[in-house]
Amino acid sequence: MLALMTMRFVHETLGQRVRFATGQAADGVAREVEALGAKRVMVIASPNRVALARQVTAELPVAVLHDEVVGHVPLPVAERARDTATAQGVDALVSVGGGSATGLAKAVALTTGLPIVAVPTTYAGSEATPVWGITEEGRKTTGVDHRVLPRSVVYDAGLTVSLPVDVSVASGLNAVAHCVDSLWAPHADPINTALAAEGVRTLNASLPMVVESPEALPGREQALYGAYLSAVAFASAGSGLHHKICHVLGGRYDLPHAPTHAVVLPYVLAFNGPGAPDAERRLARAFDAPTALEGLQTLRLRLGAPRSLRDYGFDEWMVHDAAAAILPAVPDSNPVDVTTTDLERLLRQAWEGADPG
Ligand code: NAD
Fold it and tell me: Is residue 224 within 8 Å of residue 251, measured between CB atoms?
């Protein structure tokens, strides 16, 4: 007889329009800006994405194009962007680029309330979350505020073909990390679990296609779609152990965001997996592998994924310091109890690129 379990959860669905159409970014952005009734747009793009941003926003009433975009959004950078928005009297923000460009637009929206239209060009997924982050004197502060959730997102896989393979791999594994971590994050629920499982399935199938044929659109489209699913799952579930670890590593030692996620994920999965059998089974199914960890490691091997934190500026002396900073942030929802010794072991393994477990 089927045992009926009581299902109880609180799930918040975020209000945002998503346009997904390859080759249609300029048209999609124009429609979204028109829908906002905006007359003076501030375009935010990294210096190396400016030419692309000009193409995508050619039809818009652009008041200013701001290209001072720096990873992890240092406070002075955020303040200069806010000053520019105020001085130019802008009424909407259009970000074109990866998580860093989206992150700067969010920092401006946080204090001005300006609406954002996001045009993502990596798999970071920040465009689908209400999470902002600003770094001040080596400490990254994050928060959740619905003013920073982009009103709309315009996805065009054609904009991602130029993303170098190594950056695509790290960014794609950042998206996989959103899925995995959302299975045991504080607000994990059946809805974001379903999105996360489908996200893993899609990314597992598409990222190898991106590596094999970086310019082919089918792999790029599926990877972008998987990245969106992963971000929606993460936005709803919140930060689990994996994100808490990477957050400290990024803010405290200025480690690059996506490669840090790519390296740390298998160690968190090896640590948490035994305490989360349901998540482990779902992930194994999504990876189409005997176990979740085997699935992730097979994917990482196919992608030539980043292996050790020491390749990205993390020194051995930081292990102890980082573990102490991470411990107070470990969510109560974590399926396994976490001690400083556990964190030190995990970080040391990630530092040297040892086999997880
Ligand atoms: P990024 O935005 O810094 O981009 C990495 C590099 O790739 C940059 O040099 C960028 O100019 C370049 N690039 C981007 N798109 C390109 C393209 N299509 N072709 C060629 N080059 C391209 O890195 P990221 O990993 O996308 O974002 C990282 C940042 O996003 C971090 O600050 C992180 O904290 C934040 N983030 C926030 C959230 C959130 O929910 N708030 C989620 C994920 C990431």
Answer: no
pTM, full prediction: 0.96
**How far is residue 294's CA from residue 344's CA, in Å, rounded to a whole number?**
23
- Measured CA distances, 332 to 215, 240, 326 (Å): 43, 9, 13
Measure the CA–CA gap between 292 and 271, rounded to whole angstroms. 12
- Look at residue 110 and give its three-state secondary structure: helix
Cα dist from 323 to 114, 250, 318, 337, 344, whole Å: 38, 13, 8, 14, 6
Cβ–ligand 1 distance for 121 under 6 Å, the answer yes
Nearest CA to ligand 1 atom 42: 126
Give tens-digit pLDDT for 252-291: 899 999 999 999 999 999 999 999 999 999 999 999 999 9
Tell me how far the alpha carbon of residue 125 lies from the centroid of ligand 1, in angstroms: 9
Q: How many whole angstroms from 113 Cα to the centroid of ligand 1?
A: 22
